[in-house]
Amino acid sequence: MIQSLLIANRGEIACRIIRTARRLGIRTVAVYSDADANALHVAQADAAVHIGPSPVRESYLVGEKIITAAKETGAQAIHPGYGFLSENAQFAQAVIDAGLIWVGPNPSSITAMGLKDAAKALMQAAGVPTTPGYLGEDQAPERLAYEADTIGYPVLIKAVAGGGGKGMRKVDAAADFADALASCQREAASSFGNDHVLLEKWVTNPRHIEVQVFGDTHGNVVHLFERDCSLQRRHQKVIEEAPAPGMDAVTRAVICDAAVRAAKAVDYVGAGTIEFIADGSEGLRADRIWFMEMNTRLQVEHPVTEEITGQDLVEWQLRVASGEPLPLRQDELYIDGWAMEARLYAEDPAKGFLPSIGRLDTFELGLGEAGEACRIDTGVAEGAEISPFYDPMIAKVIAHGEDREEARMMLAAALDDTAIWPVRTNAGFLVKALEHPAFVAADLDTGLIGREGDALMPPHHPSDEALADAASTLVPAGGLSGFRLNAPVREEGAFLLDGEAISIRFDPRTATARRGLNDVLIAEGGQVWRLTPWRVTGVAGGAASDGAILSPMPGRIIAVSVAAGESVTKGQKLLTLEAMKMEHSLVAPFDGIVAELNASKGGQVSEGALLAKIDHLDTKGKDA
Predict the structure, then answer these.
(1) Least confidently predicted of 103-107, 130-134, 526-530
(2) Neighbour count for residue 333 (Cβ, 10 Å)
(3) What angle separates helix 427-435 from helix 404-416, to the nearest 10 degrees?
(4) Which residue among 451, 475, 504 closes a domain?
(5) Do residues 226 and 243 make contact, with C-beta atoms less than 8 angstroms apart?
(6) What distance in Å separates the CA atoms of residue 558 and residue 536, rounded to the nearest whole number?
(7) For the chain, what is the mean pLDDT?
(8) E strand residue ranges, 175-282
(9) What's the order of all strands across the beta sheet hosting 604-605?
(10) Do residues 294 and 388 both lie within one domain?
(11) CB crowding 127-163: b at 16 or more within 10 Å, else e
(12) For residue 496, is it within any domain?
């Protein structure tokens, strides 16, 4: 067994690997950037090595620094986690050439499955069914547009080196193809250093089904059943579950056998995932499921497979990398119950899911009994900083029950009890998704969130009951401006709810023990608000209603679509900001004139910077 392990990653997955390594008696070495100097994975590891500045291209993506850190600390092996260098065949080979153990598949397997077009061709040769599309080398926009017309709209543009939902665009009509292609290629080049794409026919009622496979160096390959990852937003998984709802024994046997056949076709070693797209319009059927891609690494959603099989997949990885055979044969694996995982992100659904950064002054996951029964995988603790440099996922919440409904209710209850502040999260959105009638009924497809977006948005305000309870704790000894002090039982006060002035009626008799607090957090349905007594200081401006277009976060301007003095319409794209590996469009809040334009293509901007100012048409030329 490996005795010393360097983890070439950060955050939640680094902490997850450390947990298993410690149980197995393996010494761990963490690596960290400037931004992660005080990170949880650094504190938990037995040793830690600084590898550079905060940007990933100067730290976590510099393979030479990581290999040097392993040698200097006496690590025998390197585990890449997921993301970063986990599917980089050159890095894997460099690790092996340095005399270290690579905890992952052979570099040749990564290469074979790393480019989606080549992987699909390989799977076709192995007899694995694939979706119709274009895999050609000719990447001229005209040729790609022609092939899209031939396939028939809607089509899906996918970066051949893509992953994590990046470099993907659904196109519904030919008129939209050119812009979608350019955006997809920019994102792919930025994220993966490769702007080549493939085209696929968009599947009606698509469901995302994937199979966990595992191989060893002795020629054994098994599957650990399937997961359903159909609940997605912008091609990024939101809630995953295992097994897949509606999967019968015959269909499971067909899809899992195909996954094993795919893994054997590339002599696969270690943990991998074969991803399939299914046409769910008539339920899951063996003849309506096609190979989509292979992820040659551990998946973010691997805990749901661990929960239903009772296996530790990181332990399997470490044993296989040490030369041991797979811990179990196929006939020794079975499904026990149901598991669901929700990805808790530092992002604000009310602002188009823009990442939220800052200090976690309050960080409480699953406060009640349901939360205590759930598994929490996280890489942060209270007081940690959520930085703009990395993926904004801060935790995974996993529930395991006897059946799907029990797992769903446990997960929803745990998220409902989550309280995080002042960083915004998607916890309320996750609760709404778990409680949506279609999800409850397992009527799933990858377009569910897109169709039901408004219905899944958490409320902007807490309930009247929660407001009244919170207000009753804030009655200052000297009273508040706006109170009717002669009211016998019920009082009414003026408060600020996240900066918005509101009036609340409450019972002051419940405030005796906590009279005079400066503020209080209201946690309800996964949402958190701050309530404070009315203060004369007022509220800082900058809302879009006044026409000010502010940068929602630090980033780089990659496109400017308007000019100063130009007329614009509500919703028209003004600027495109690249931040946290994603593109964000900033649009006009109303019909008007571009009165100011303070952004240029390629420019770096800070959070809150005034990028543009839109004047109403009837105020053009007037003094503000």
Answers:
(1) 130-134
(2) 18
(3) 150
(4) 451
(5) yes
(6) 40
(7) 89
(8) 197-201, 206-215, 221-233, 236-242, 270-279
(9) 582-587, 573-579, 555-560, 604-605
(10) no
(11) ebbbbebbbeeeeeeeebbebbeebebebbbbbbbbb
(12) yes
Axis crossing angle, helix 107-114 with helix 116-125, rounded to the nearest 10: 100
Q: Is 576 helix (H, G, I), strand (E, B) or coil?
A: strand
- Locate 113 and state its tokens: 């499955």
Confidence of residue 484 (pLDDT cuts 50, 70, 90): very low
Q: What amino acid positions are annotated as catalytic residues?
A: 297
Give me the mean pLDDT over the 252-261 stretch: 95
Which one-letter amino acid corresponds to residue 591? Answer: D
Cα–Cα distance for residue pair 117/567, rounded to 1 Å: 43
Residue 564: give the domain boundaries. Answer: 544-619
User: CA 553 to CA 65: how far, in whole Å?
Assistant: 29
Which residues does 596 contact at the CB level (< 8 Å), separation at least 6?
564, 610, 612, 613
Structural domains in the chain (count): 6
DSSP 468-514: HHHHTT---TT--TT--TT-SS-EEEEEEETTEEEEEEE-GGGGGGG
Is the alpha carbon torsion for 538, 539, 542, 544 positive or negative?
negative
Alpha carbons 155 and 143: distance in angstroms, whole number: 14
Place of tokens 């795919």: 262
Q: Greatest CA separation found in the chain?
A: 84
More confidently predicted of 512 and 177: 177
User: Is residue 112 located within the same domain as residue 242?
Assistant: yes
Q: Determine phi and psi for 142, rounding to 5 degrees.
A: -65, -40
Residue 51: both structure tokens together:
């590898």
Mean pLDDT of 127-140: 89
Q: Is the separation of the CB atoms in 541 and 474 below 8 Å?
A: no
- Give the end of a domain, one of 396, 420, 451: 451
pLDDT tens-digit profile of 156-203?
999 988 776 788 999 999 999 999 999 999 998 988 889 999 998 888
Mark whether 505 and 560 lie in a shared domain. Answer: no
Tell me whether residue 457 is in a domain.
no
Q: What does each C-alpha distance from 379 to 42, 96, 395, 538 come to in angstroms?
A: 10, 28, 7, 37
Give tens-digit pLDDT for 548-568. Answer: 888 877 789 999 999 999 999
Position 538 in a domain? no
Note every long-range contact of 325-330, with CB atoms under 8 Å and residues 24 or more positions apart, other chains counting. Answer: 325/216, 325/218, 325/220, 326/214, 326/215, 326/216, 326/218, 326/220, 326/222, 328/222, 329/220, 329/222, 330/222, 330/223
- Say which CATH number the domain at 16 has: 3.40.50.20
Other C-beta atoms lying within 10 Å of the C-beta of residue 195: 19
Q: Is residue 91 part of a domain?
A: yes
DSSP string, 14-68: HHHHHHHHHHTT-EEEEEEEGGGTT-HHHHHSSEEEEEE-SSGGGTTT-HHHHHH
Out of 90-94, 294-298, 464-468, 547-551, least confident range: 547-551
116 & 234 share domain: yes
> In terms of domains, do 230 and 126 share one?
yes
Q: Which residues contact 118 (CB under 8 A, 6 or more apart)?
A: 112, 135, 160
